[in-house]
Design brief:
seven-stranded mixed beta sheet; Rossmann fold; alpha/beta; two-stranded antiparallel ribbon; binds 5-O-phosphono-beta-D-ribofuranosylamine
C-alpha cells in the first residue's frame, strides 16, 4: 500500500477530501502522516480527530533548507511515497524537491500559469477573466510551477465575490486532487517537456 504525506498550514479541506476518499477506497493508499508548519492549523486538529499521525513542525524563524530537512526527515520516518501539499504556505527548497523527485503534488486555485501565488481567486476577479479554475501539478522549486497533471475550469459569474468564487473552485479542487493522486500512484503517465501524458496500464 502506498503511503501519503500531507503538508498543510490551515483549514485543511483538501486534506479532508483526500482522507474521505482514502477511507472510501477511492484512493488506493493510506495517509502515513499529516504535517503542519503552523501549530494552530485546523487541518492538524482534523487529522488528530481522525486518529492519523499529525505532527506540527513550526517554521517560524527557520531558514528554508534547515526547515525542509526536518520535514523531509519526518516524511522519511513515515516512509512516505507521495507528498501532497494541501494549502501548505511555503515554497520548497531544491533540497526537498530532490529528495522526492516527481513525488510532490500541489493544488492551486487558478488555471496555471494564470494567477500564481497568493489570493489567486482575488487576482482572477480583478483581472476580469470569465473562466478560472484549479490545477494540480508536480512541485519544483519555483512558485506554482512544475508539470500540470489535472485542471478543472470554473465559470466566473457577474455577481461573484472572492468567497462565492472560492467556494465554487474549492468543490473542483476536492475532486481533481484525488484524480491527480490516482494518476500519479498508478504510474500510468509519462512526462514530455512540460506535458504529463497518460499512458495505458
Ligand atoms: C486551497 O484553495 C488550495 O488550492 C490552496 O490553498 C487552499 C487550501 O485550502 N493551495 P484547504 O486548507 O485545503 O481548505
Amino acid at each position: 500500500m502506498k503511503r501519503l504525506g500531507i503538508l498543510l498550514s490551515g483549514r485543511g479541506s483538501n486534506f479532508e477530501a483526500i482522507a474521505d476518499n482514502v477511507a472510501a477506497g477511492k484512493i488506493n493508499a493510506e495517509i502515513a502522516v499529516v504535517i503542519s508548519n503552523r501549530p494552530e492549523a485546523r487541518g492538524l486538529e482534523l487529522a488528530r480527530a481522525r486518529g492519523l499521525n499529525a505532527v506540527c513542525i513550526p517554521s517560524k524563524g527557520m531558514e528554508r533548507e534547515a526547515y525542509d530537512r526536518l520535514v523531509v526527515a519526518e516524511l522519511k520516518k513515515h516512509q512516505v511515497d507521495l507528498v501532497c501539499l494541501a494549502g501548505f504556505m511555503r515554497l520548497l527548497s531544491a533540497y526537498f524537491v530532490r529528495e522526492f523527485p516527481l513525488r510532490i503534488l500541489n493544488i492551486h486555485p487558478a488555471l496555471l500559469p494564470s494567477f500564481p501565488g497568493l489570493d489567486a481567486q482575488h487576482q482572477a476577479l480583478e483581472h476580469g477573466v470569465k473562466i478560472t479554475g484549479c490545477t494540480v501539478h508536480f512541485v519544483d522549486e519555483n512558485l506554482d510551477s512544475g508539470p500540470i497533471i489535472v485542471q478543472a475550469a470554473v465559470p466566473v459569474l457577474d455577481d461573484d465575490t472572492v468567497e462565492t468564487l472560492s467556494a465554487r473552485i474549492l468543490k473542483e479542487e476536492h475532486r481533481i486532487y484525488t484524480e491527480a493522486i490516482n494518476i500519479v500512484l498508478s504510474g500510468n503517465f509519462r512526462i514530455e517537456g512540460r506535458r504529463v501524458l497518460l499512458t495505458k496500464p
